[in-house]
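can u do me a favor
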């Protein structure tokens, strides 16, 4: 299904033009020697909370729109959980098995961790039946 703006202009074209404009702006205002002034706004955590999370959930939205809302909701939580377990659990398990005398992995705790934990907790509690 094509989404149209004012029944004439496709939504994908608007998104493509906006993305191209932002990409051009970033290209023109960036230099390889130093980060741009807006670097903190486009940090990894912010991208993970917004753009990457939305992109990861597009398939789940598609399943829900095609009449399978239960599968879509389950995939919203199951996909990232599997990704975390496989992406972080396996490498750290291998690390601990290979080097058992090591003291483990040092974790860094800061305000962003608190924000992320609070956000995911609110999301999970609010979506419970």
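np, heres the sequence
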């Amino acid at each position: 299904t094509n989404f149209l703006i004012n029944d004439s202009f496709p939504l994908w074209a608007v998104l493509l033009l906006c993305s191209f404009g932002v990409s051009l702006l970033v290209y023109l205002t960036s230099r390889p020697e130093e980060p741009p002034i807006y670097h903190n706004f486009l940090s990894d955590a912010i991208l993970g909370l917004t753009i990457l999370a939305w992109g990861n959930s597009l398939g789940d939205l598609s399943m829900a729109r095609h009449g399978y809302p239960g599968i879509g909701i389950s995939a919203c939580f199951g996909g990232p959980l599997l990704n975390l377990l496989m992406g972080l659990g396996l490498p750290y398990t291998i690390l601990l098995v290979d080097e058992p005398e090591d003291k483990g992995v040092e974790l860094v705790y800061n305000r962003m961790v608190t924000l992320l934990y609070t956000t995911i907790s609110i999301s999970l509690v609010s979506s419970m039946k």
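Residues 40-128 form one domain. hope that helps!!
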